[in-house]
UniProtKB/TrEMBL annotation:
Domain Polymerase/histidinol phosphatase N-terminal, first and last residues per copy: 153-218
CDD domains (UniProt xref): PHP_HisPPase_AMP, Terminator_NusB
GO biological process: DNA-templated transcription termination; transcription antitermination
Name this protein carries in UniProt: Transcription antitermination protein NusB
SUPFAM superfamilies hit by this protein: NusB-like, PHP domain-like
Similarity annotation: Belongs to the NusB family.
Keywords: RNA-binding, Transcription, Transcription antitermination, Transcription regulation
Organism: Kuenenia stuttgartiensis
GO molecular function: 5'-3' DNA exonuclease activity; 5'-3' RNA exonuclease activity; RNA binding
Pfam families hit by this protein: NusB, PHP
């Protein structure tokens, strides 16, 4: 069988488990796909399908219900329902897959995993969905919301120009191989990774959104603000990046001085060599601490020495969240609150909205279903665009590959519409 056919079978098994077990299985799905895939390509495509179906399940189920006359979704066999979800997901959101391929693959899945009538049942409903798309009918908002300019996207990716390990070129190659339509390289306080990726991708079909992740601080902790569709030539933004690099270097020296007081002897040259052309940060310092045998893991280096509440921590000389948001708006971009579920400063969201916040990172690898639902409600309450991404860091976060979390093109389009002077 072809790799994608095998991946679809794996995805159906994963979706079936999720439907039966709910949140209990959610944290195990990545490992399930990894262990049961013979090749990396199979694992990654299966996970992309599962993530896509889960991200758009509401819209997908609505389209199935509209197309399945005399059939209530809750009365469908679990396996048939999830085969339909996979097929409809591909039809609605995967422009890179021919519709006939999606339908035929779904029919074969139904014949293999369903009962004797499943193939005909799935074929009938998917044909109606396909005809609806082909004829351009718009009886509900699904087709209206589907963005013409963007497809499946990962809006949170780091390269080795900040605290990731992959080069911009490697990121572009992997995103193309995974079938993504758009990515945002959101390196910390720099756009150098974006510039390299954009140059490498010239003439390609992958869209690379100019973006940045700005480190802001409001006592007692950092708050990261993502900026999308920014004007990379904006003078204020260029000034920030220059000053941020200088401050990062000074901060590394200060943290190393504190580490020496704790009998942790670190040479700053090792940190700067590891950072290379990128912005030196705590992730680089943590890796040097770990490499020198002072901790058993990178996580321990943060917990024991340089985390926000650890003895060698030094706050950044940085912007306030308000200043970060205003800077992104000045650069004609759309500011988004990064991973609020990790930051745990929800009490500030109302103020951030008042300052000009336009989006919130609702979809994130570490989130439970309950966390996603919580931030979807807050996005609706404050009229924010729900965004998301993998927060890819390469080998420094091996469990979060590119496209582990992805979002549909309609959300990217909505985000772009929130830019100033759009």
């Amino acid at each position: 069988m072809r790799n994608r056919t095998i991946a679809r079978e794996l995805a159906i098994k994963a979706l079936y488990q999720l439907d039966l077990l709910g949140d209990k299985a959610e944290t195990e799905i990545d490992e399930f796909c990894r262990q049961n895939a013979e090749k990396p390509d199979i694992y990654k495509f299966a996970l992309l399908l599962v993530t896509g179906c889960r991200s758009h399940v509401k819209e997908i189920d609505e389209r199935i219900s509209l197309s399945a006359e005399n059939w209530d979704l809750h009365r469908m066999a679990v396996i048939d329902k999830n085969i339909l979800r996979l097929g409809v997901y591909e039809l609605l959101y995967r422009d890179d897959i021919p519709p006939k391929v999606s339908i035929n693959e779904a029919i074969e899945l139904a014949k293999k995993f369903g009962d004797k009538d499943s193939g005909m049942f799935v074929n009938g409903i998917l044909d109606k969905v396909y005809n609806w798309l082909k004829n351009g009918k718009q009886k509900d908002t699904i087709q209206e919301e589907k963005a013409p300019d963007f497809g499946i996207s990962d809006l949170h990716i780091h390269t080795n120009f900040s605290d990731g390990t992959a080069t911009p070129e490697e990121v572009v190659d992997e995103a193309i191989r995974l079938g993504l339509s758009a990515i945002a390289i959101t390196d910390h306080d720099t756009i150098q990774g974006f510039l390299r990726a954009d140059k490498y991708n010239k003439g390609g079909n992958l869209q690379i959104i100019p973006a940045i992740e700005i480190s802001a601080f409001l006592d007692p902790s950092e708050i990261h603000i993502l900026g999308y569709f920014i004007d990379i030539h904006n003078d204020a933004l260029i000034g920030l990046m220059k000053k941020a690099r200088e401050d990062r270097i000074e901060r590394i020296y200060k943290m190393i001085e504190k580490l020496h007081g704790l009998q942790v002897e670190i040479n700053p040259v090792e940190v700067f060599d590891l950072a290379g052309e990128g912005s030196p940060g705590r992730m680089h310092l943590a890796e040097v601490i770990w490499r020198n045998g002072y901790t058993s893991t990178l996580v321990d280096a943060f917990y024991k020495y340089i985390g926000d509440k650890a003895p060698a921590y030094v706050p950044k000389k940085t912007l306030t969240p308000q200043e970060a948001i205003e800077l992104i708006r000045e650069a004609k971009g759309a500011p988004v609150l990064a991973h609020p579920g990790l930051t745990q400063r929800d009490n500030l969201i109302e103020d951030l909205v008042r300052y000009g916040l336009q989006g919130i990172e609702v979809y994130y690898p570490a989130y439970t279903k309950a966390t996603v639902e919580k931030y979807l409600k807050l996005a609706k309450k404050y009229d924010l665009v729900a965004t998301g991404g993998s927060d890819f860091h390469g080998k420094r976060k091996v469990d979060t590959p590119i496209a582990k979390i992805s979002i549909p093109g309609n959300l990217v389009k909505l985000l772009k519409q929130r830019c100033r002077n759009n």
